[in-house]
């Protein structure tokens, strides 16, 4: 066996980038997507109008943008809204969404699972259960197969 | 009710030899070749004559479709009912229906790799098979034996799918080489010639379907797109008339392209309706989409809550049956405006009977598995694993009366719409 099996540092060239048959996804101009409006969502949370806050935070999802900050911002905002809900209201919240809304919510939930913090996983799991009963397994499959996500 | 009307057929060694009185079938393990009962002599009989067109009524069963079993493919032809399947290996087995049993009549062994596609042309009685060995063979029945003819596809990856055109003068092969091989017979040199459709396919072609005009070809591929190509071969046919998909159709031209755009999944299966105006496809992101060529090119997509579907088929101009990883065929309706709605699952489980477990069984379960629960790991659906292919069994694409599904569990199930409409509340096939 060759001697250098431990470190990968000698791999300085990513040969996949030079493969002429490499599949490159279409560019979808998403530079202007700014994510949900932070001010609007914050004010709705303060007013206690959580249903409206949920609708507002699921608007303008930063799916196509390459700006990671915008995506992180949006994810934080969504988590804030989801945590503000009472456990008994989660079901009502999910019912108020249409099919695309449930798919988008599931995308945010899985994004939130990726970076757990404090109580976030527990809250997200509650929402996940309700979103699953509304969207079914197809909803989760769409999260897995989406190449551009929040 | 479903179990009596829709028969589940397991084309394994035990079913083919159970037609005779051989009692050794139950003892034979699936690994040993089954003993040949005397009923397999039909190998030597000449093929049945086709009825003359005007004097006799048409034969009752006209299945001319492909169906798959054990994640491979099969196809059937006219009287007597025959089916060609591949049990996920290098061979094709042909079964004939005699009475209520399926009897194996031929074995086609020529491929060196797994068979990935089979299609049977009912009118010219030829079978085309394609495999992972990058080859395709056209089989013709001569003196009761199926003789293969190699088709040079000129591909450097496995073939994935094959389909005869409606007039059976050409066939299309999808492959992992990111291209479609359209093959036609050149009588001067007495061989099959292939022409390639390459651009703009960027990944493996998973599924193909021909338009009724014999020229247009729909292809679903792993680059998340469903496209309509022209496969016009001037050597074998006249110039086609204009269609809602386009009027200029040189070979290899893309007349329509759908899907992709950051979302979507691999397009597992495509299907034209019998008029050719509608095109349906199922994708790995658990969606079914239909586009109506006559109503502009905005497809109507339905995001389902099921696991991804693997096969789709138009069974009338307005209804689509699809099946996949949920092991259950589903019915969808496409209304005149072109929008798609889910109607019903077609495999509704009967109310599950909670068995009373005997005390002996409880203790045995407790001993072996530290639990006293009932050990029922079978799925509620008829199929116990994903359905890979849905095909027409009786009727045609404008009015299908029975369809058949085959899957990775090795089972072939035949579904009858009459009994489905009777057993499922409010189900009407339009």
Determine the most extensive contact between two protein chains: A-B, 21 and 20 residues
N-to-C span of chain B: 22 Å
Number of strands of chain B: 29
Distance between the termini of chain A: 43 Å
Number of helices of chain B: 4
- Could you give the count of β-strands of chain A? 0
**Helix percent band of chain A:** 55-70%
Q: What are the secondary-structure elements of chain A, in order, as H or E? A: HHHHHH
| Shape call of chain B | globular
Structural class of chain A: mainly alpha
Instruction: Specify Rg of chain A, calculated over alpha carbons.
Output: 19 Å
Q: Into which percentage range does the β-strand content of chain A fall?
A: under 5%
Q: Give the overall pLDDT of chain B as a whole number.
A: 80
Alpha-beta classification of chain B: mainly beta
Q: Count of DSSP helices of chain A? A: 6
Oligomer: heterodimer
**Main beta-sheet strand count, sense and barrel state of chain B:** 5 strands, antiparallel
Write the topology of this structure.
The complex is a heterodimer of chains A (150) and B (430).
Chain A lengths: L37 H10 L2 H8 L10 H17 L5 H6 L3 H16 L5 H26 L5
Helix pairs in contact in A: 1-2, 2-3, 3-5, 5-6
Chain B lengths: L1 H4 L2 E2 L3 H5 L48 E2 L6 E4 L4 E4 L5 E8 L2 E9 L5 E7 L4 E6 L4 E7 L2 E7 L7 E6 L5 E6 L4 E7 L4 E7 L7 E6 L5 E6 L3 E6 L23 E6 L7 E6 L5 E6 L3 E6 L7 E4 L5 E6 L4 E6 L5 E5 L5 E6 L13 H11 L17 E10 L2 E9 L4 E5 H7 L7
Antiparallel strand pairs in B: 1-29, 2-3, 3-4, 4-5, 5-6, 7-8, 8-9, 9-10, 11-12, 12-13, 13-14, 15-16, 16-17, 17-18, 19-20, 20-21, 21-22, 23-24, 24-25, 25-26, 27-28, 28-29
